[in-house]
Specification:
The protein has two domains: 241 residues, Type I PLP-dependent aspartate aminotransferase-like (Major domain) (Aspartate Aminotransferase, domain 2, 3-Layer(aba) Sandwich); 133 residues, Aspartate Aminotransferase, domain 1. Helix 4 links the parallel strand 2 and strand 3. With 384 residues, it is an alpha/beta fold. The longest helix is centred in the C-terminal third of the chain and has 20 residues. It binds pyridoxal-5'-phosphate. Pyridoxal-5'-phosphate binds next to helix 3 and helix 4. The site of pyridoxal-5'-phosphate has 16 residues, from helix 3 and helix 4.
Length: 384
């Protein structure tokens, strides 16, 4: 179902979609139906027998996202966490997983507080350290799960070198590409087996849908995941699929502007005395700037920075902002800001937060696509 178009922007708008055969409607209709008429018992049109198994609006979105990641198969879910859960269902008791140490809080929770009771052993490792990563593999390691750039510290993991480590022992490599977006980074081309997205973020881009997706190249792997998707049933409704199809038509334009705005703000913050450190993969000062330059075509819209005065300083800065909104989540057209220590990563144990560098003064910016001059003025007035 992926399209013949070779260039990203054209695929974003057209892949997986064709005018509706019944009416010629340009937009894929919201097939708000649970079931489908069968001309004869057990005979149905294409794959459409029941909407948990398949729904045409979802099928179009799955093909569109597969195309954007350069993959052959896409599967969509009711949330990013449901997409991750689908992959974890492929594991068996006794299996070992290597998890990148700096991950989305919900990822950490799913591995450590849900799947731990199913006999899955997890090692948290800083995957920017190649030797440390290599030494963590055992003959039971079935899955490496990483994010890059990571949340919230924006560490950049070398996907191709992790894929190399996984190859020998039949370990699957899954990359959560939520922060990078399919516009800037395509993990399948770098050797990953599975790409995961929280489509709640940049894919949706308008903070109005919760969703998730998995994209793969290998048909046997896709079939196993699709079996779990249908068996567990954490599928998105057709309305949400429609909204996401509308969103992907502009993802390349949005993400370009997120990158431009974030670069200007990161440079501004880096020259600011009130911030002791600014982390943005596009800054030459970023420890993995070279890896980011190699595997990404742009550096994204996320920035983290540490304020010199700690939690109280961060709190009053956040409260004074007028254009940036204090909120969890990210990747929408509007600029958001948050304090990981008391918001998104409050559930991460204190000692682990300290190891990762999630200090009380840390603030995380999700830079939107407003006029960057207004964003910089807003930051200045809030610091003043
Ligand atoms: C938000 C997020 C998730 C979880 O997705 P939901 O849609 O909230 O379930 C997973 N990974 C990353 C990197 C995220 O930012």
């Amino acid at each position: 179902m992926t399209s013949d178009y070779t260039r990203f922007a054209t695929r974003a708008i057209h892949a997986g979609q064709k005018p509706d055969p019944a009416t010629g409607a340009i937009m894929t209709p919201i097939y708000q139906t649970a079931t489908y008429a069968q001309p004869s018992p057990g005979k149905f049109i294409e794959e459409f027998d029941y909407s948990r198994s398949a729904n045409p609006t979802r099928t179009a979105l799955e093909a569109n996202l597969a195309s954007l990641e350069g993959g052959r198969f896409g599967l969509c879910f009711g949330s990013g966490c449901a997409a991750m859960d689908c992959v974890l269902h492929l594991l068996s008791p006794g299996d070992h997983v290597i998890l990148c140490d700096d991950v989305y809080g919900g990822t950490n929770r799913l591995f450590h507080r849900v799947y731990n009771t199913h006999g899955i052993e997890v090692s948290l490792v800083d995957l920017t350290d190649h030797d440390k990563a290599k030494a963590t593999f055992t003959d039971r390691t079935k899955l490496v799960w990483l994010e890059t750039p990571t949340n919230p510290m924006l560490k950049v993991v070398d996907i191709a070198s992790m894929a190399e480590l996984c190859k020998g022992g039949g370990t699957m490599l899954a990359v959560d590409n939520t922060f990078a977006t399919p516009v800037l980074q395509n993990p399948l081309a770098l050797g990953a087996d599975i790409v995961c997205h929280s489509s709640t973020k940049y894919i949706g881009g308008h903070s109005d849908v919760v969703g998730g997706a998995l994209i793969t190249q290998d048909e046997a792997l896709h079939d196993r995941l699709k079996f779990v998707q249908n068996s567990v049933g954490a599928v998105p409704g057709p309305m949400d699929c429609f909204l996401l199809l509308r969103s992907t038509k502009t993802i390349h334009v949005r993400v370009d502007r997120h990158c431009e705005n974030a670069m200007q703000i990161a440079q501004h913050l880096e020259n600011h005395a009130r911030f002791t450190s600014v982390v943005y993969p596009g800054l030459p000062s970023h420890p993995q700037h070279a890896v980011a330059t190699k595997q990404m075509s742009g550096f994204g819209g996320m920035i983290t920075a540490t304020m010199d005065g700690g939690l109280e300083d961060a709190r009053s800065f956040l409260e004074r902002l007028k254009v940036f909104t204090i909120a969890e989540s990210l990747g929408g057209v509007e600029s958001l800001i948050e304090s990981p220590a008391i918001m998104t990563h409050a559930a991460v144990p204190t000692d682990q937060r300290a190891t990762l560098g999630i200090t009380d003064g840390l603030v995380r910016f999700s830079v939107g696509i407003e006029d960057v001059a207004d964003l910089i003025e807003d930051i200045e007035q809030a610091l003043g």
